[in-house]
Every structure is written in C-alpha cells, then in structure tokens.
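Mods, move this if it's the wrong board.
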Amino acid sequence: VITIDKKQTIYVGNDPINIHRLGAFVLDQMHGAKDAPVFIRCDQAVPFGAFAQVVDALKQANVTNINIVTEPLSTGGS
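Not the wrong board. Structure tokens:
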C-alpha cells in the first residue's frame, strides 16, 4: 500500500520514499509482476497533483494494476 499523508510525504508500507525512487522500488517489491495490484490511499487534504505524480511514477515503471483505497462517505444520519 502506498500512502500519501497530508504533508505529501509518500510511504510504501510504513517507510517513506522519494517520488523519484517510487516506481522502481515498487516494481522491485513486486518481483517484476507488473500486473500485481498496487493500492494507493491519501489524505483528503492532498492536492490532486500530488496523487497524480504518484500514479505517473507507477505508470512510468510499467505498473498497470493501480487501485485507489477509499473510505465510505458518511450518510449523515437523522
């Protein structure tokens, strides 16, 4: 799981990583299985551009199965 916190720090698991190393690192962790699922979650305060940079870094490394982790919206009970 790749996480982007509200300070725009990127983590793979619990370890911070530089955006420039992200694609190669994730691909290495996948042992070359480019179709293995990769999950991204980010704080709601993260600008879309930061999220897009992470997706782009993965795509440049030919990671193809990118999934977004979401939390359900609250229904605002009565």
